[in-house]
Amino acid sequence: PVARVVVNVPATTANLGPGFDSFGFALDVWNRVIVQKSDRFEMVVEGEGEGRISLTEDNLVVQCVRKVLHSLGKEMPPLRFECQNAVPPTRGMGSSSAALVAGLAAGLALGGKDVTTPANKKLLLQLAANEEGHADNVAPAIYGGFQIAFNAEGHWITQRVHIPDGLQCVLFIPDDEMPTTEARAVLPAKIDRKDAIFNIARASMLINCFATSQFDPLRMAMEDRLHQQYRKHMFPFEPIIKDALEAGAHGAFLSGAGPTVLAITGGVGIANVGSDTM
C-alpha cells in the first residue's frame, strides 16, 4: 500500500474569452500537495493562502481524499497534508480546481490506483468535472496544455489543442478577489441568439488561430458576449485588456471568473507585452 503521495497540479486559465465553461489551458505555476500516513490528522499550508485556507478536515483537499477512498470502499486513515501553494486563491487561476484534482488524485493513489495511466486519468477527469460542474479548468489541470472539454450523455470528454512554440502569457493579478460563486450569480439565465452566434464564430476562429499559429485575428477571436460584459462592474478589467492589445498583445481576456487578466504574447508575429505594460 502507498504510504506517501506527492501531487503537482498547475494553475489554469479558463474561457479564453468566448469559450465559456469549455476552453482552458495550463499555466507554468504549480501547487504541490504531499499526503502521507501519520498517527494523527495534520494540515500544513505554505505560500499562497497561508493563514487563510482551512487547516481542518473541511479543507477541500482533505474532503476529496476522503470521498475517493470511500468510493473505493476504504476509510481515510490519519494523514498529514502539506500544501505548497503558488496559485493565488479566488483570482481566476483555477485554485479550487487545483485543490480538487490534487485531492482526488491523492485519494486514488492512496487507494492503490496508478493515476498516470490513461484509464485512471479519465476517471480523475470524470470525478473532478462532476464535482466542479464544468471541465474547463480541471481538464488542463489533469492533462496539461490547451483543452476543450464538454459533457455528453453524462460523460466528460476532452481534447488537446495545439499551442504554438514560444507562446507566452502575461498576467495582471490584482489584490482584489473574485469568488466564482459571486461572478456566476451575475450572469443572465438566457442570452440573445446574436450573442450566441458572436461567441460561436469567435470560439471557432480562436481554435484555428492556435492550431495554425495564425495570430492576426486573435484579438477579435478572444472577444466575448456571454460573460465578460456582465462582470465588468465587479472589477474594471476592460481598460487593462485595451491597454494590453494596444501594447501589442495577440489577444487578452478575463481569466476564468476574474479578476486576473491574461494577455497572449510571443510565438509568431509581433507581440511585445511585458509586466511593465500590464
How would you describe this protein?
Helix 1 links the parallel strand 3 (42-47) and strand 4. This protein starts with a strand and ends in a 12-residue tail after the last strand. It is 33% helix and 25% strand. With 278 residues, it is α+β, with helices and mostly antiparallel strands. The mean pLDDT is 93.
Counting DSSP H or I runs of 4 or more residues, the number of helices is: 9
Task: Give the N-to-C terminal Cα separation.
Answer: 49 Å
User: Structural class of the helix and strand makeup?
Assistant: alpha+beta
User: What is the residue-mean pLDDT, rounded to a whole number?
Assistant: 93
The number of E-state strands comes to: 9
What is the rounded Rg? 19 Å
In sequence order, what are the helices and strands, one letter per element? EEEHEHHHEEEHHHHHEE
The helicity comes to 25-40%
The backbone outline, from C-alpha atoms, is globular
